[in-house]
Structures are given as C-alpha cells and as structure tokens.
Automatic annotation (TrEMBL):
Name recorded for this polypeptide: Excinuclease ABC subunit C
InterPro entries, per database record: GIY-YIG_endonuc, GIY-YIG_endonuc_sf, GIY-YIG_UvrC_Cho, UVR_dom_sf, UvrABC_protein_C, UvrC_RNase_H_dom, UvrC_RNase_H_dom_sf
GO terms for biological process, alphabetical: nucleotide-excision repair
PROSITE patterns hit by this protein: GIY_YIG, UVRC
Gene Ontology CC: one annotated term: excinuclease repair complex
Length: 408
C-alpha cells in the first residue's frame, strides 16, 4: 500500500480514501487506478456520483492504493477490505441488504452461488429452513455490483469448474457439464475427494490467496509428474497458467461503469395515475445495478386537490425526500416531457439536491419515443431508464386500479 503523492498507475487495483487521522472513509476498485480516482475530482461529481460521495471527497485527506494483477483480483480485494473495515461511505452509498455475496454451501458436493444481503437475512431468520450457519460453509463479500460479480464468477468457473444448480447423481450431465463449467457432479463424473480440491482452490482464490494457491498447485504438478501422471500434471499446469493470465475481458468491458462511478447505481422512477383528476396516485420504483429493487417501491395517495400532474409529481418528490433514511438516487426518471423534468429539477434545486433528472416522452400509443435530459446519462443508462419508467407505469396503474376497486 502506498500513499498517493503525484499520480496513480494506469493499472487495476483498489483505492482507499482516508479522512483525518487516516480513518478509512471509502474503498473502491478500479480497472485503471489513475482514471478512476481522477473521476472523483471532476466538476460533475455530484451529478455522476451523488451528494453522499461528494461529501466524502470533501472530508478526504489522502488516497492509498493497492495494485492487483487483474480486475478480477481487484474485485475480490475490494470485498475483503470492505468487510474488514466497514467504511462509513460504502454503507451510506448502498443499503447493506443490496450487497452481493458468494456462497459455498455445506453439502457433500457444495454449490457455489450468489446471494443478496436480504436473501441471507431471510435465510437466517427462517423458521422453516435450517438457518444460514447450517447451510452455508463459506461466505465471501460484500460485493457492491451484482452484474460484475456474476461476470467474475463466470471467469472463476472457467478456471475451477463448479456445481451451482444441478442435482447430484441425476444420471446425465447438466448443460454446464456439457460445456465444461461443471465437473460432472450430476453424472457421477467426479469423486467427492476430487471435487473437494476444486472447492478448496475456489475458496483460496476468493480469500485473495492466489500466491498460496499457485504454490500449492506447483507442488501438486511436480508430484503428478514424478508419479508419471503426465495428463494430470498438464491439467494443473494449464490451471496455473490461467491463474497467472486471468482473462477478465468481460470485467474490462464493464470498465466504463467503474470509471463513471456506477457502483450501486440507484435509479428512481416516478409516475402519476388518475382518471380525470380523481383518485390520483403516485409511485416510486427503483433499479439498482440495472435490476428492479421491488422492496424499495413506494405508493403515494396524492393529497394535492388539483388536476395537475406537475403538482402531483412535486408532492411525491417532496414526500419521498422527507425520508432521509432512504438511500439517495443517482438518477431520477419522470414520466413526461419538458414540464415534468423542469418541475422535478426546480423542486430538487429548492431542497439543495443536485440529482440529475431525465424524462421519458411517449407517443400517442404511450410507447417511449425519446429521453429528455442529460444526453450522456440518457445514452449510457437507456435500457435501465426505460425499464424503470415501464415499472413505474405498471406499478402506478396497478395501484390506481386497486384503489378504485376499494372505493367501489
């Protein structure tokens, strides 16, 4: 670990923002340490990262960094350090229940899978299940980005094929076994002892002990060669090569998200539903890391006594931002054109919130026609914006019908 003096290297790694007395404020990963850390000092920091991270930068006194051999190893190291130090701005930026974890189960042929924090809470609190401790053997995380973690697991799985969903002894190879991503647990193609080696290696890798892992594999390779098991030795040699030359192109493709600061990127979409100004309701839907977070969806019965969608939108936003305990969005999506976007921007400005706003304009058949607002955000998040807007419309119509049914 080194103290930042001039500039950071253009290599993968983990960066650590520190406050007074070197207190750790925030930990993140980067495809390029230089580019990533530089992005925190741009003029548009609040619009790209939000007010929480902007506040962190004001409090930060210096930055440390740790270089890694690959983006994948940076991802794993980030999770280890977040777990160890519990930096305040990591937990402020994202709800703990939204973090992702790698789980290795307690079974004769363990499964390697992912779980969200809320799923782990449900398992731990389940009265019917065996509970978290009795079902999970190893747990790694937290990982802030679910999509990036899934790509990472795909890379690890090519090096150490593991079981995730297939049934032990089902008699025929599952699809993943057919393409080399499962060792054939399902078809009885691997023994319990051999599979345990795979699990141990996977565990070491997710513990960030690549050097220990490679050293052990080198010893195993020499033993196999001395015992004239050349095919086995060759396989171990290929595994060592793969570990030393990790092909994390899929993670590098995700680098624009890392550079733009999209870790835990929260989008909130708002919509209003009514019939001729009666039974007016509003909703908020949420996407995190491009995935709907339905536990954060909210319904609002509009109290404003006027047939005015803009007034209703303002009321929804005001009631929403009275909840300081809710995670802050990094982008707001409204259903409508210039008037709705300006209403939201004006309200946010009054409340001292610098959150970018985009509007989804519909055609005569209520199909998305264009996105108004920040062009860069609209292009880079187009799919998520449209999904969030669609979810808001669906949720609002459903709530309105439900309310009308009760009144009848």
């Amino acid at each position: 670990m080194q103290k930042l003096t001039t500039k950071l290297p253009d290599n993968p790694g983990v960066y650590i923002f520190r406050g007074p007395k070197r207190v750790i404020l925030y930990i993140g990963k980067a495809t390029s340490l230089h580019t990533r850390v530089a992005s925190y000092f741009r003029r548009d920091l609040i619009s790209t990262r939000g007010p929480i991270i902007a506040g962190m930068i004001e409090a930060a006194k210096n930055v440390d960094f740790i270089e890694t051999d690959s983006v994948l190893e940076a991802l794993i190291l980030e999770a280890q350090l977040i777990k160890k130090h519990q930096p305040p701005y990591n937990t402020k930026e994202k709800d703990n229940k939204s973090f992702n974890y790698v789980v290795i189960t307690k079974e004769d042929f363990p499964r390697v899978t992912t779980m969200r924090g809320r799923e782990m809470d449900e398992l731990a609190n389940s009265r019917l299940g065996l509970g978290l401790k009795s079902e999970v053997k190893y747990l790694f995380g937290p990982f802030p980005q679910g999509g990036v973690l899934r790509e990472a697991l795909n890379i690890v799985r090519k090096i150490f094929p593991f079981r995730d969903k297939c049934k032990v002894g089902q008699g025929k190879p599952c699809f993943n076994a057919q393409i080399g991503l499962c060792p054939g647990v399902c078809a009885g193609l691997v023994s319990k002892t051999e599979y345990a080696k795979t699990i141990r290696r996977t565990k070491l890798f997710f513990e960030g002990k690549k050097k220990t892992l490679v050293s052990g594999l080198l010893r195993e390779m020499k033993v196999s060669a001395n015992n004239l098991k050349f095919e086995e030795a060759g396989q171990i040699k290929r595994t060592i090569f793969a570990l030393n030359h990790i092909q994390d192109v899929a993670l590098l493709k995700a680098s624009p998200r890392m550079v733009l600061g999209e870790a835990g990127f929260r989008i909130e979409a708002y919509d209003v539903a009514h019939i001729s100004g009666t039974n007016t309701v509003g909703v908020m839907t949420v996407l995190e890391d491009s995935e709907p977070k339905k536990s954060d969806y909210r319904k609002f019965k509009i109290k404003t006594s006027t047939n005015d969608d803009n007034a209703s939108l303002r009321e929804i936003l005001e009631r929403r931002f009275n909840h300081a305990e809710w995670p802050m969005p990094k982008l707001i999506v409204v259903d409508g054109g210039t008037a709705q976007v300006n209403t939201a921007k004006k309200a946010l400005k009054e409340w001292g919130l610098a959150i970018p706003v985009v509007g989804v304009v519909k055609d005569e058949r209520h199909k998305p026609k264009s996105i108004l607002g920040d062009k860069i955000l609209a292009q880079s998040h187009e799919r998520s914006i449209l999904l969030a807007n669609s979810e808001a419309h669906r949720f609002a119509i459903g709530f309105h019908r439900q309310l009308r049914g009760k009144i009848r």
